[in-house]
Design goal:
Number of domains of chain A: 2
CATH superfamily of the largest domain in chain A: P-loop containing nucleotide triphosphate hydrolases
Shape of chain A: elongated
Helix content of chain A: 40-55%
CATH class of the largest domain in chain A: Alpha Beta
Radius of gyration of chain A: 27 Å
Largest sheet of chain A: 5 strands, parallel
Oligomer: homodimer
Structural class of chain A: alpha/beta
CATH topology of the largest domain in chain A: Rossmann fold
CATH architecture of the largest domain in chain A: 3-Layer(aba) Sandwich
Order of helices and strands of chain A: HEHEHHEHHEHHHEHHEHEHHEHHEHHHEH
Strand content of chain A: 5-15%
């Protein structure tokens, strides 16, 4: 795999001097077009062997390009805020928006590599972590990011030479750390694990480019030209046509039977029973939230449902039981300007709670496979892939000891009409039924299909959907509270062990 | 000061039951109007004696209002990311946007109070910290925030009763901590310092309201009604007319002599000398950035200047000397949607570097007193007060061991024309002169006046402006590098001591 990067590639000084100025001009031009068009974000990874020139390369790129529109990120110790969240959170928060360039030195590859070389994680663990990385990069690629991954390689001899010569010069001595030499002694093992890693994570959309690191001029020119070519190609490509029409349903049971139809919406809870149950379950939820081990978990609750199904009321019954310091509610309507410049999951990653906290989502990432699908705001391929992306996202939360509870509050069409009519009559502005609500109602069947597909594809053992019969508000609220309590209890049991 | 809050205020259960439902309706209505109009943000502080009911009150408010549009913040230990920045950064990052409500328990008042009671800080230190708080709140009020500060008071006897009764009940025992009893023993001292604090920080725009905490019904109703009344008043007030026209200059020397005119723009540096100096100062800057003590300081560099004065080129000469991992460049054009819903300084607080790092600002908070003033984007009063706000902001940075270096790159009108013309000829898109650039040029004198006022009012000993004669790019770049080096060197000297 590294054969071509040990051939002793070299670029003469004169060639370099001749080629750099036009390359720089072209790069700046391309970067300007990128910035103006905001067509896509660019993610440049510079990884590779120790002292292979990662830092220098990134510095040169910052010099050639306009550094005002680049953010460079190096691996540093995790901050407390990052430790409190799933591992990929730290990367989501540093993603460049469309139009900008993010450069990552080492990046998400460094840790798994070093951990495996030093046998802190098994090969199976390594594969699992690489799998996570692949999915992460895949989402970003699917969302339009241009991914460029450079691996700077040095042969064993070259690396030794480099370390020695850096160490000799008092100006560069600081660059060589003890761990560099320690790593060097494990050159073969690094070589072997790197190869495995590069092989596993070279995908069609984000392949690795291995660059011989010996000659700086060769390294800079190769990388600079690759960036230019990729940028230019993508900038000049015609925009794919945007799908605006509603797309056909993803699946359709030929007998017409859908999971939502199996719900018994006539389920009811009498007022007296409701009050008893409410007290019981709110009390229980409150105690659970103050449990000694609650600080080891986090809770994410997703509320989705038909319009007027009673999400707001259900959320309030949950928050009543909790101390306001323990929860945050995130409500979602259309994305803001900053959010539109990022992958669709980005705006939800922003609200992931740290441990010991609740995050209640009033609508959520499922908008992608509900409203965006039905209204045709995104292409068929986009919402189809979203199921997998969402499952993966939730898996990351669950692995980080986050309890993911998801509710679909279901009412029937008749009940909705009744509530719409009632709301029109009360006259409270905040309950006002909008034109949009009526329009959504007309698409009842499309939404139902979307909901059924969503449940089929995203109700997983680790993050199951709870369908809530919500024609009767009392019944619905208690079911919500009870479900949350049971899920938290189970999680606290697991944590204890 | 607390006399009226020891009268034994009480609300009968029947009165409470009658009054709460209409109050809640009216509160929800007001909150809905707030959300729709996005007129202003609301900041509610609930502070006061231990176990005076702060948490319960905030929970009730979250129950009465729609909790989806409230964020509640309690004091918790500072995170690493917060420790790395000036103390108020943590509060700036939690401010509610226009249309929303932020509730703070204890908030920025708790620490100075407790620190002074336990004699960890002197009275003078307390006053200084209160002064900082007043300025912080003042900015937010001036930017339109509705501030409501409630102080929950208990008499000595009442507090003892409360602690004892909470402790008796197994369900509430957890609320009483050792520190509550420890504080109780210092009741008189707390009483005395609280009074001093409340007196000092009750301003016309954000006065304290002292509420007797003994009877929960009295407490909730009083606070609920106050919030409703203030919200309603502010929502229903007619909007003040927006000033759109350019406003008159703030000051004008009667002999017409301005500080910019004293610059000798003919200053030059020959190419050979430039190259030597560039190497020298870039080398020095690089070494300084790797100094052992550099991790104890942070560096903020502001680049302002006439259009085409060479800000970009100067920035590049700085970044060339630095490792890309050490700096971030923040460029500012018009604010994003999220930024427009916040006070104008908010978008700059977002980019304050942590220690050991550079933040280079390509344009900055000075836009307020330059383009916003000249173009009439904000009212006369708004940019006039900005000078003080900016000085205060920079003082906070400096106190946190941040070196603040500010450059005004000055060229004359003739030189600008020459550069505009040259740019039109080169034809690089990224240098293209826009309509706006020509329009700005027509307002040369207004801008010059604004710049002179800015320098007069914001060049302070701790954060001085450096005027850079920039008709000659070589001269300008070296002056920039040299200034940064000297300022960092001085800061490292101070840190050492």
């Amino acid at each position: 795999m590294f054969e071509s990067a040990e051939l002793g590639h070299k670029i003469a000084k004169s060639v370099y001097k001749r080629e750099v100025p036009p390359l720089r001009e072209a790069l700046l031009d391309a970067q300007f077009d990128l910035l103006q068009s905001k067509k896509f974000p660019v993610i440049i990874l510079v990884a590779g062997v120790d002292c292979g020139g990662k830092g220098e390369t990134v510095n040169i790129l910052n010099e050639w390009l306009d550094p005002r529109h680049i953010e460079t990120h190096a691996l540093r110790p995790l901050t407390g805020e990052e430790l409190e969240r799933p591992p990929m959170w730290r990367y989501w928060r540093t993603l460049p928006p469309k139009g900008k360039i993010g450069m990552f030195i080492g990046s998400w590859y460094s840790e798994p590599l070093v951990d495996n070389v030093y046998k802190r994680i098994s090969n199976a663990d390594l594969d699992q972590r690489l799998e996570r990385i692949i999915r992460f990069e895949q989402i970003l690629c699917d969302e339009g990011a241009l991914f460029l991954k450079f691996w700077l390689h040095l042969s064993r001899d070259q690396q030794k030479k480099r370390l020695t010569s850096l160490e000799k010069d008092p100006d560069t001595r600081w660059r060589v750390t003890d761990s560099d030499w320690k790593h060097y002694k494990k050159y073969d093992r690094f070589h072997q694990v790197s190869e495995r890693m590069l092989r596993a994570t070279s995908t069609a959309e984000s392949p690795w480019l291995i660059v011989e690191g010996t000659d700086p001029r060769y390294r800079y020119l190769t990388i600079g030209k690759t960036i230019l070519q990729s940028l230019r190609e993508r900038l000049d490509a015609p925009e794919p046509p945007k799908v605006r029409e509603p797309t056909p349903p993803a699946t359709m049971a030929i007998d017409g039977l859908r999971v939502l139809q199996t719900l018994d919406l006539s389920k009811k809870l009498a007022k007296g029973d409701y009050e008893d149950e409410l007290e019981k379950w709110q009390g229980k939820l409150n105690r659970l939230s103050r449990h000694d081990n609650f600080g080891k978990i986090a809770v994410v609750v997703v509320f989705e449902g038909n319009d007027a199904a009673g999400k707001g009321g259900a959320i309030r019954r949950v928050t009543q039981a909790l101390d306001a310091r323990r929860y945050r509610i995130a409500s979602f309507a259309s994305p803001t300007e900053e959010e539109r410049l990022q992958p669709y999951l980005w705006r939800f990653w922003r609200h992931i709670p740290h441990r010991g906290r609740f995050a209640l989502f009033d609508r959520s990432w499922y908008g992608r496979v509900l409203v965006e699908r039905v209204e045709g705001y995104c292409a068929h391929a986009d919402w189809m892939r979203a199921y997998g992306e969402i499952n993966d996202f939730e898996e990351q939360l669950v692995r980080h000891q986050t309890v993911v509870v998801k509710f679909w509050l279901a009412i029937d069409k008749k009940e909705q009409l009744k509530r719409f009519d009632a709301r029109e009559k009360i006259g409270f502005k905040r309950f006002k039924i909008t034109e949009e609500d009526w329009r959504n109602r007309e698409k009842w069947d499309d939404y139902e299909q979307a909901v059924c597909d969503m449940i089929d594809r995203t109700s997983t053992e680790i993050a199951p959907w709870t369908l809530v019969e919500a024609n009767d508000k009392n019944y619905a609220r208690i079911k919500v509270l009870k479900t949350i309590c049971n899920r938290i209890e189970a999680a606290l049991d697991r944590v204890k062990k």
